[in-house]
Design a protein that fits this description.
The structure is a homodimer of 366-residue chains.
Chain A lengths: L1 E5 L3 H12 L13 E6 L3 H6 L7 E2 L2 H6 L5 E4 L7 H10 L4 E3 L2 H17 L4 E2 L11 H7 L4 E8 L2 H13 L3 H11 L7 H4 L2 H15 L2 E2 L25 H9 L2 E12 L2 E12 L11 E9 L2 E8 L3 H16 L15 E2 L9 E3 L5 E5 L1
Parallel strand pairs in A: 1-2, 1-4, 2-3, 4-5, 5-6, 8-13, 10-15
Antiparallel strand pairs in A: 7-9, 7-11, 9-10, 11-12, 14-15
């Protein structure tokens, strides 16, 4: 199985390294040998300097997708275009695609799913949610006999790291964010994480697998309500240190919680800074840990937790998806029915709220 | 797909009910319709009185296995024989088998795996560990690209319920056990749970999937060491209320922990009452909850948690396995290499211990 890797960022580097250094460990008992057939990067000279094999490098990812010498495409470039078109072209050509790109799946999932189903090409994206934590496959396959009611989770490590550091170190948001950038836990432009876009994208993907419906990520509420004239700020950008300290006095931790549940009218979904009881496992999910909880019948409640980010951990999911492609394992949605269009999420109704000193109203989870 | 269910206990009843009442919800988009083709019970009159369809009932499970009118066998009788022979005969005849029987897999797994592999018959047993919590499939498939180092977990709900009640209610072991029997959390003969046999069986199955080796369940240490003349008692039977209270004073909870890790000499495995830090999620896994933690490279550490017992929750895993059989999903070990014989586990070396007032030495996990 000749594998083309598009993108050599933090996840791509780990996937490339595994394919080069330990291909035998990636060969299932009933699967084919894997061969790294090409790597698409933006800057070939830099990739060569980083030790990548020059003979495999190209700066034309579309050539790798179209090449008769590649069998499977691993898309790790991230972002919208050209990832969207490259994935669509590969699927249309019958080449299985493995990706970790939550943006492209959340925004174009229905279209890409249709392209994959049209000619039965496997499309796998376990790495898009929770890094290496197995969660999408288990929801789609292992929980397939359940009616699932609700999902909630902490799915963004950057914001959880920042909120945890604010609480334990008693430092304000801006200080901790600046440190997180230096430590590599936050990007130079952190808005995708701190304003809740990344978590909303992941929620769209979780909802697709659990509830069989693609949501429009832009329709997911990301800003809490707030008393006074100003509206609440999105994601964690309005979470103040006094809010966190006042919540802690009431045995609550402020966490960015992605949550969705089914109603007869549609799917209620939100990504909101929430006040979570410290008696709950979710409230004690600290630092860069992720935790995803799923409620259903007859299963009750199950949870998946671990480190939800980082190139090495995330490569675990990408590589397992590649192995599944080799074993004819189908797509991440397993036996779930097709979902054909993105619909708007319903905003949550007001619930019990913790009002911080800033006036922000945090939904309470206990 | 014509399904025969052998056994109508707490799990069997829920599986039968789902197959009768909601077969459409069990049909994958790319899978066959499921039809309940037969039910084997010990007492037909009692099953009829319980509302089961008389036309489907038999007290001869071997006939259902041999019948040309059954395609898949769901073995939920539990115990050793006749389950072992029925499973072996079905697999040899090319009929896929789904089971929740941890005893028979732990004791005869190598033989049954060989029978399944001989002619490629699917053999699935996700329900054998953690009830409905997806854990075996995720370890075998989603974590396939990792080198797994260690597993630990709370995998027996009965003993965790008893230990939790002792700690929170301040009541001695015998009292709580008596109540647990009345409440249905413990069996009339509780030795399988309280002496650690059930947890050892589950550990054998986890080790098979994570480390590729069947262990002899009898070789797994289940009794802690103890100062003085008497040896430690197996499982939780020697855990005293003063031990639990003294541990709590040191921020430790006594939990029955199943643990295994790889060494160059073999697999170290044990099921021991252990003193777990209350700062760890494992130490705060209370009541009938289960939690299984897996460490590996590159994944780091991931955990699976939820209600690990009960007929309804466990039926979730049995039914998902049936759906996987219908979708040609292979066996629970997915692409893992064959494991052909049961070997002895290595006993753990002494580690930091908490010595309770009873003299029992509890390994410390923090």
């Amino acid at each position: 199985m000749r594998v083309a890797v598009l993108g050599a960022g933090s996840v791509g580097r780990e996937v490339i390294r595994a394919l080069m250094e330990r291909p035998d460990t990636l060969r299932a008992a009933d699967g084919p040998a894997m061969v790294l057939a090409g790597i698409a990067v933006r800057d070939i000279a830099r990739a060569v300097a980083a030790g990548m094999p020059e003979a495999l490098l190209t700066d034309a990812p579309a050539h790798l997708v179209a090449s008769p010498d590649t069998d499977v495409i691993v898309e790790l470039m991230g972002g919208d275009e050209p990832a969207r078109t490259l994935i669509a072209v590969a699927l249309a050509a019958g080449k299985p695609v493995v990706t970790a790109n939550k943006h492209v799946i959340a925004h174009h999932g229905a279209e890409l799913e249709a392209a994959a189903r049209r000619n039965g090409t496997p499309f796998r994206f376990e790495a898009a949610v929770g890094g290496g934590i197995p969660v999408l496959g288990p929801i789609a396959a292992d929980l397939a006999a359940n009616e699932l009611h609700a999902i909630r989770g902490i799915v963004n490590g950057t914001t959880n790291f920042i909120l945890t550091a604010m609480r334990f170190d008693g430092r304000p948001y801006a200080d901790v964010l600046a440190d997180a950038k230096v430590a590599g836990y936050a990007e130079a432009d952190p808005s995708g994480d701190v304003e809740g876009h990344d978590a909303a994208n992941k929620l769209v993907i979780l909802v697709r697998l659990a509830f069989g419906q693609w949501l429009d990520p832009a329709s997911i509420q990301r800003a809490p309500s707030r008393s006074g004239a100003d509206p609440g700020l999105p994601g964690i950008t309005g979470v103040s240190l006094p809010d966190i300290e006042a919540a802690a006095d009431q045995n609550l931790a402020i966490k960015l919680v992605a949550a969705a549940h089914r109603t007869p009218d549609g799917i209620v979904a939100s990504v909101l800074p929430s006040a979570v009881s410290l008696d709950l496992p979710l409230g004690r999910t600290d630092g860069v840990l992720n935790r995803i909880e799923v409620d259903g019948t007859p299963i009750g409640s199950v949870a998946f937790s671990g480190h939800g980010a980082g190139g090495a951990a995330t490569s675990s999911a990408v590589l397992a998806d590649l192995m599944a492609v080799g074993r004819q394992g189908g797509s991440t949605w397993a036996g779930r029915s097709a979902a054909a269009s993105h619909k708007a999420a319903i905003a949550p109704s007001p619930v019990e709220a913790f009002i911080g000193p800033s006036g922000t109203a945090y939904p309470v989870i206990r």
